[in-house]
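Section: Multi-chain targets

For targets with more than one molecule, the full set of components is provided together so that the structure can be written out for the assembly as a whole rather than chain by chain. Components appear in the order listed by the source. The example entry contains two components.
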Amino acid sequence: MRTVSRRQALRLAAFSGALGYLGQMGFSQAQAQKLLKIIAWGGTYGDAMRSSWMEPFAAAAGIRSEIQLQSSSMETLASLRANRNRNDADLWLSAIAPTSLAQSDGLLSPIPVDQLKNASQLPAAVVNDTYVGIWSLPYGIIYNAKTVPFEITKWEDLTDSRLKGMVTAPYGANYNGMFIALLALLAGGDETNVDPGFALAKKMKPNFSIFTTSDSEQIRLLTSGEVDVVAFAPVANYFAARKAGSQFRFVCPKPFIPVSISNVAILKGANVEAATRFIDFAISKEPQQKIAQMLGCLPINTMSEVSPTMREAVPASTEFRFLQEGVMASQLSGWNDRWQREIQR
Amino acid sequence: MIARLVPYFLVAPALLLIAVLLTGLSSVLGWSFQSSAGDGAAGLVQYANLATNESYRHFFTYSLWLAAISTFVALLLGFPVAYYMEINASPSQRKWIFAGLLAMFLSDYVLKMFGLILILGRSGLVNRLAMWLGVTDAPFKLMYNEFGVLVGLVSGILPYMILSLNGVIARLDKRLHEAASVLGAPPWRIFLLITLPLCVPGILAGTMLSFLLSLNSFVTPMLLGGGRVDMIAVLIFDQAINLANLPLGSAAAGVLFLISGAVILLLNGLGDRYQKRFQR
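Its structure, encoded as tokens over all components, is:
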């Protein structure tokens, strides 16, 4: 029988250990290639993404994905800036303003748009190598028809003195400053000149009682009777409020309503090939239709059908306005300070 | 040998935790010296921004004001309770008061604030009662303003104030009161010249704890302020999270840290001076 010296035994053990470690590393890397990490919102958004996109995509492409939760896309931007080069996620669901800021900070990878087979079914404005639109959200006014003494039909109704102390408005530059930009447009300004918007907001100021920081806070305040009017809300909040009572109305006020585009971007250091395949799947007709119905938003794919509930809340005749969110992004901080100083206090 | 190492093993986990926390804190402070885009060193630019921008200064002065008022109110409300608990209450009454304080400690802070909304909100208990009794036609504005935040702050710090005072009052030498009484001093004089001076260490400890808790408060202004009550923690959250401006948020956190340190030093200094004077 052949004997093995102590030195040989140690060498054998070290070799086996190294072999095992390398095998494990290879297995982990192969697994990682098949696992996409997506930074996205949780709650109803996460649930809708899993059943509309992630599970069908895993079944179709054999690539699993998981969500890394974010409470807001600006929070993720702060985290990406703080952990530059230490990010391990592939995709980021966000709004145009944070995506634009991330792009200028060099935190994103270019999207190979030519590899997106379904891109031609999307409006050209929402497909570029920085981001691809995934759904759109129209914003309007929600009010309690039982307690508001008149029918709200236009944005200027928010200045009506009969609404004194009954209205909640966004806190600071919440919703990426869209309310401030909207007021500017209504008063004759634009995204680069918001002075007229602030003048209009001052007329509304006596009616503002609370400033909210989130969708859930808006819904809670409205359904608990703390406020009667939400000055600026995504239509999804109306669907949530309706579950608490039929007295809530959603108005697409005249002359137009703003629409925000939620988008997806590929992060620096991502698995670009798998990420691109995921994006292509997410923007295709059926997954778009499904997620739009679940979230109460408009599908970005022009071939997808809009649900009857959504059509009832946002009639086809409604005029949409796409704000220049990229232009607004760099001014958010200044708007936020000014809004707090001149309107909230 | 092992017996000698045991104390080190016991303190090591806590020291490690403190080291991790300090590393995190120093990392935050490091960010405060960066430019707003986080792409390079910017010296004291963020601190200068905080000092020169009236809007940011307001967050600090207003927070200090609210913390001072809420601490004073908690002292006014807490002292009689702590005094009663130790001097007049029967053992069973003391147990009940203590159980109430314990319940305030154990309940979740966010839930406590929501509880206040249910009581003081527009459609809350107080307003419904006032309107039912015909006291008012329209609901009182008791929440989502400065008053609402003050109520929230006071309810949050009151148990800390009571327990800080309670410890000192429990150690009062009752023979001093009896002696003063025998010599003909009226109760108010006994309180002002004997009880109150002996309680100063407890008042200072309670004041320090309550003031710092109020000053650093985030949940209360967020839930009860309605976006109208500007406190420092809200500014930090707003800048670091909502606007992704980590450097300015970090600078605000750094200034809050310095203010808190200054308050601790000031009140400790006052306590030391008082004790020296008292011991003479």
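The radius of gyration of chain B is 23 Å.
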